[in-house]
């Protein structure tokens, strides 16, 4: 029978050493999972029992705490109401309103949380008492406002008018009338003072004194009515009597509001506040008593739950330790032995002996795999050594090529510097000789000397191109900025290119609007790039026309100038456009014998100059039709953001190059 790790060869249960490691791990994980499930069930049961008791205790504690907060809110409400009744300011009234709303919210929370019918009944009574209390407070505030308004708007004007009328009566008679009017005025003032004291202190003596002073004022007025016979005085006395009668009515009303306010405070506010406090205290006492009972029950229950959980946890831990010991003995130890062997093999020790384990499980399979791995590692090491040798040879070849490239650049620089001086001497000497021959009238020899001068200038230009290309390769080319006039540059370009155009029988024209303005850029590089384009156009055009044009435009929001050189020469296929800007590449065979073709660096330098100045190139050509090359340069040179010169690599011209459709010169507007 085939073994699967579950049955032995005889079909019975396998021996521990004959089972596979996967089976042992599965048994171990199964035991661990069973232990975890047992612990989870025990924990959930314990958690459920504890959470149930804790929930009941927490509910009772929350009710007790909320009741305590409600009792504090009631005390704060009474303090705020007392402050408002004492000072009468708006802030204390607002504070009392907020305290009332807070107490009402707490009573609502208690009513929602309470489950005991007795608690709910007590809270309903407390809510009703709060409503009655707050209604009484609102009534007291209204009475106070009415009393204050009556005193300010009615009583005080009446007292003022009475004193004014009594002042008129002082001057209406003799000494007796003056004394009676003065006594009446004093009695009115005393009545007003006793009224203020009564409102403030609620003293019945002040009320009696107030009424007595009012009666005294009336008596004085009656006496004056008997003594004064001056015309008009009886009318004034009557008016003062009417004023005193009105004052009496208002004083009675004020006294009634004081009495009503005192009754409200004694019969409604105080009992309702006491009722609220009593009902809240009743709820709080029951909640505290329930919380104490639940706390004791929770402590007893937790002790029992903890003992049971501890016993079950100890049993589970013992079984777990036995399972760990069995797994470690049957799995971890042989795996550790193999791990040591693999680590030694990974460190490069291929000659280590592999442990021989007489087992029929994964460890034995791993041992055979490690043996094959050791053989492969030895083979790979040999191949790596061979590859290291090849890489070393390639690195040496690369270093040799870089040295040769540096040597080539040094050679170009040295050769250019060595040739520049004698060529300059040849040009100067030929100029001097040509002038002397013209002076003596030897025109034939002068023409030959002029050819020597022209050839020397061509050689100097070739040397300068080699030097510029060497600087580009060395990354030593700088940008020298200056302001120059675009129209004057075009005139200078035409004058300097006319000899090359005449040499090949070409016409050279300029097409540009006046007033193109100035550019702030590298004048030398702009001029040299355009001279190279004009030289190429004249060289590859025979008996044709060359047109140099310029226009102002905006490229991507940047003011720019577009220089275009168009010829009617031989042209070339558009697929060769990118190749023309590579160094030392010629555009084709010179059309006329005896004409030098140059070093193939003209367009290469044009591309690099354009890239350095932040411009781009557009080329259009058709074989047999002609060529048009346009340089678009920013009017004001913008340096790179990192304040470093732009990268000067051989791919810079090609990244700025675009190929366009060629238009014959007949379709261009000069």
CATH class placement of the domain at 477-667: Alpha Beta
**pLDDT < 50 runs, ≥5 residues:** 1-12, 589-596, 643-655, 665-670
Strand order of the largest sheet: 2-4-5-7-6-8
The CATH topology annotation of the domain at 477-667 reads as: Heat Shock Protein 90
Largest sheet: 6 strands, mixed
The count of strands amounts to: 8
Gross morphology: flat
CATH architecture heading of the domain at 477-667: 2-Layer Sandwich
Q: Give the topology string: H per helix, E per strand.
A: HHHHHHHHEHEEHEEHHEEHE
Strand content: 5-15%
Whole-angstrom Rg = 59 Å
Average pLDDT confidence is 76
Catalytic activity: ATP + protein L-histidine = ADP + protein N-phospho-L-histidine
Main location: membrane
Transmembrane segments: 25-49
Protein name: histidine kinase
Task: Report on the architecture of this protein.
The protein has helices at residues 21-87, 90-113, 117-170, 175-201, 204-227, 233-346, 362-440, 443-474, 486-503, 523-539, 577-580, 602-612, 652-655, and strands spanning 482-485, 507-511, 518-521, 545-555, 558-567, 616-622, 626-634, 657-659. With 670 residues, the protein is of the alpha/beta class. Among the domains are: 354-476; 477-667, 2-Layer Sandwich (Heat Shock Protein 90). Strand 6 and strand 7 (626-634) form a beta hairpin. The protein is flat. 25% of the residues are buried.
């Amino acid at each position: 029978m085939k073994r699967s790790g579950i049955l032995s060869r005889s079909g019975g249960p396998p021996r521990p050493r004959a089972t596979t490691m996967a089976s042992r791990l599965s048994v171990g994980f199964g035991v661990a999972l069973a232990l975890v499930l047992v612990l989870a069930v025990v924990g959930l049961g314990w958690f459920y029992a504890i959470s149930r008791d804790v929930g009941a205790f927490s509910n009772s504690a929350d009710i007790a705490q909320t009741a305590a907060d409600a009792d504090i809110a009631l005390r704060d409400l009474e303090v705020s109401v007392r402050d408002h009744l004492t000072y009468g300011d708006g802030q204390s009234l607002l504070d009392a309103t907020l305290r009332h709303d807070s107490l009402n919210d707490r009573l609502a929370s208690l009513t929602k949380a309470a489950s005991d019918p007795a608690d709910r009944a007590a809270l309903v009574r407390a809510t009703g008492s709060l409503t009655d209390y707050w209604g009484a407070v609102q009534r007291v505030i209204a009475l106070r406002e009415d009393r204050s308004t009556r005193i300010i708007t009615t009583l005080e004007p009446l007292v003022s008018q009475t004193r004014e009328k009594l002042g008129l009566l002082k001057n209406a008679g003799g000494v007796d009338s003056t004394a009676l009017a003065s006594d009446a005025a004093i009695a009115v003032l005393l009545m007003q003072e006793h009224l203020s004291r009564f409102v403030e202190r609620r003293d019945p003596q002040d009320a009696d004194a107030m009424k007595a002073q009012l009666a005294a004022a009336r008596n004085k007025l009656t006496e004056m009515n008997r003594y004064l016979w001056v015309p008009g005085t009886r009318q004034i006395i009557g008016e003062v009597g009417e004023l005193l009668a009105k004052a009496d009515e208002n004083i009675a009303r004020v006294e009634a509001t004081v009495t009503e306010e005192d009754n409200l405070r004694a019969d409604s506010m105080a009992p309702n506040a006491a009722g609220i406090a009593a009902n809240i205290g009743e709820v709080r006492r029951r909640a505290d008593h329930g919380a104490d009972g639940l706390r004791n029950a929770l402590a007893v229950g937790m002790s029992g739950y903890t003992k049971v959980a501890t016993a079950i946890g100890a049993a589970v831990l013992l079984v777990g330790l036995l399972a760990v010991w069995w797994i470690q003995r049957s799995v971890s130890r042989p795996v550790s032995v193999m791990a040591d062997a693999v680590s030694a093999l990974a460190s490069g020790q291929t000659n280590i002996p592999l442990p021989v384990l007489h087992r029929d499980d994964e460890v034995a399979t791993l041992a055979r795999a490690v043996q094959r791995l050791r053989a492969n590692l030895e083979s790979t090491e040999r191949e790596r050594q061979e590859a290291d040798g090849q890489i070393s040879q390639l690195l040496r070849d690369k270093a040799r090529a870089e040295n040769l490239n540096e040597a080539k650049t040094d050679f170009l620089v040295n050769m250019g510097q060595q040739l520049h001086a004698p060529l300059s001497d040849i040009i100067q000497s030929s100029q001097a000789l040509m002038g002397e021959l013209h002076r003596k009238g030897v025109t034939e020899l002068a023409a030959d000397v002029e050819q020597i001068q022209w050839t020397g200038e061509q050689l100097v230009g070739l040397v300068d191109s080699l030097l510029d290309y060497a600087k580009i390769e060395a990354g030593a080319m700088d940008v020298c900025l200056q302001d120059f006039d675009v129209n004057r540059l075009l005139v200078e370009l035409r004058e300097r290119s006319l000899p090359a155009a005449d040499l090949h029988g070409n016409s050279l024209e300029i097409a540009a609007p006046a007033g193109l303005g100035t550019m702030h850029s590298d004048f030398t590089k702009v001029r040299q790039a355009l001279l190279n384009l004009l030289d190429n156009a004249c060289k590859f055009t025979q008996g044709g026309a060359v047109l140099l044009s310029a226009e102002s435009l905006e490229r991507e929001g940047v003011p720019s100038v577009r220089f275009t050189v168009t010829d009617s020469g031989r042209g070339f296929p558009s697929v060769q456009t990118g190749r023309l800007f590579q160094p030392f590449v010629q555009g084709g065979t010179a059309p006329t014998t005896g004409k030098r073709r140059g070093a193939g660096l003209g367009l290469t330098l044009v591309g690099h100059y354009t890239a350095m100045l932040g411009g781009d190139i557009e080329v259009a050509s058709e074989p047999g039709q002609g060529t048009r090359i346009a340089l678009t340069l920013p009017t004001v040179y913008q340096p790179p953001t990192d304040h470093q010169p732009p990268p000067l690599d051989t791919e810079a011209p090609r990244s700025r190059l675009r190929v366009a459709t060629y238009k014959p010169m007949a379709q261009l507007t000069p």
